[in-house]
Amino acid sequence: MQASIDVVTFYDEHPINLQEILSRAVASGLSVDSLTAADLWTWDQDHYGGLAAVDAMAETLQISEATQVIDLCSGLGGPARYLATTHGCRVHGVDLNQTRVDGATELTRRVNLSDLVTFSQADVCKLPMADNRFDCAISQEAFLHIEDRESLLAQCHRVLSSGGKLGFTDWTAGAGLSDEHRLRFANTFAASRIVSVDEYETLLQEAGFRVDSVTDLSELWQDILKDRLRMFRSLEDETVKRFGQSRHDTYISNYEFFVERIASADLGGARIIATAQ
Ligand SMILES: C[S@@+](CC[C@H](N)C(=O)[O-])C[C@H]1O[C@@H](n2cnc3c(N)ncnc32)[C@H](O)[C@@H]1O
Question: How many alpha carbons lie under 13 Å from residue 48 in its C-beta half-sphere?
């Protein structure tokens, strides 16, 4: 679905950004010159459910020190740094947005993880990596932005070794999700395609994956998203300073609409684990 806001602009004006993370670190008494990865964990996870969500993914995917991980749509790199810190694995993050890639690289350098965690700019539908390069691909709350889900999954399959695992969490369409809702999400969140769990299963199988598990997160997300809405409201001063009052107000009213759709089950969420065949 053609959106009136493009995804790069959406994240260039996002309340969670490099400067906001560093200023929250300073406000809590930390020095930005001597940060550890753990210092950032409260602020650098731009998905639903924070570290527990990454733990659940890592456990299901059996990530270990030897696993070569690609984080698709890695944003500011919070999950990549957390996985490298807790499991000792190498993680390469890919994001379309150069500002996000620069922010992720900067935060990773500041916490001395650049040996294990790297980032590059690319569209995940056209990954420049070699075939069979990774054991595991992860992604959190990002595929909703990608209309060409067929190319995305084909690329995931290509860069994974045979038997490699794909684990992702994403928005899923509920029975009540109308065309009007979809249009609003496209125009406000750059959510260009929202698919149901059944559609995801078909898309994955057509791309050469075996679906191992589907975990419905819809109920869990209800409270998590109410908390995130409170968090975004609390960022008003920072957001207004950077992007203006109108951006803050619009973001909050769009987020309220999103939380309502989740509460009414028009929209849901799932964690899906699949194996490249
Ligand atoms: C909600 S953020 C998720 C960040 C990260 N996964 C996390 O949990 O902190 C979604 C990210 O997807 C990226 N993105 C959207 N479309 C993309 C594409 N086609 N290729 C690569 N990255 C994309 C955006 O730039 C944004 O950084």
Answer: 25
The verdict on residue 110 lying in a domain is: yes
Containing structural domain, residue 48: 7-276
Domain count, the chain: 1
Banded model confidence at residue 34, pLDDT cuts 50, 70, 90 = very high
Which positions ≥6 away from 153 have C-beta within 8 Å? Answer: 203, 204, 206, 207, 209
Inter-residue contact 80 to 58 (CB < 8 Å): no
185-206 per-residue burial string, b: 16 or more CB within 10 A, e: under 16: bbebbbbbbbbebeebbebbee
Assigned domain for 2 exists: no
Residue 1 is assigned to a structural domain of this protein: no
Confidence band of 1 (pLDDT split at 50, 70, 90): confident
For residue 260, give the CATH number of its domain: 3.40.50.150
Q: Using CA positions, which residue lies closest to atom 27 of ligand 1?
A: 75
- pTM of the entire predicted model: 0.97
Q: Considering the domain boundaries, does residue 31 fall inside one?
A: yes
For residue 210, what are the β-bridge partners? 275
Burial class (CB in 10 A: 0-12, 13-18, 19+), 136: buried
Q: What is the mean pLDDT of the chain?
A: 97
CA of 74 to the centre of ligand 1 (A): 5
Q: 143 with 149: CB under 8 angstroms?
A: yes
Q: Which of 144, 145, 194 to mutate to test the pocket of ligand 1 (most atoms within 8 A of CB)?
A: 145
Question: Is the CB of residue 93 less than 8 Å from the CB of residue 82?
Answer: no
Q: Which atom of ligand 1 is nearest to the CA of 124?
A: 20
- Which residues are within 8 A (CB) of 165 and not within 5 positions of it... i.e. 6 or more apart? 61, 62, 135, 136, 137, 212, 273, 274, 275, 276
DSSP label at residue 32: T
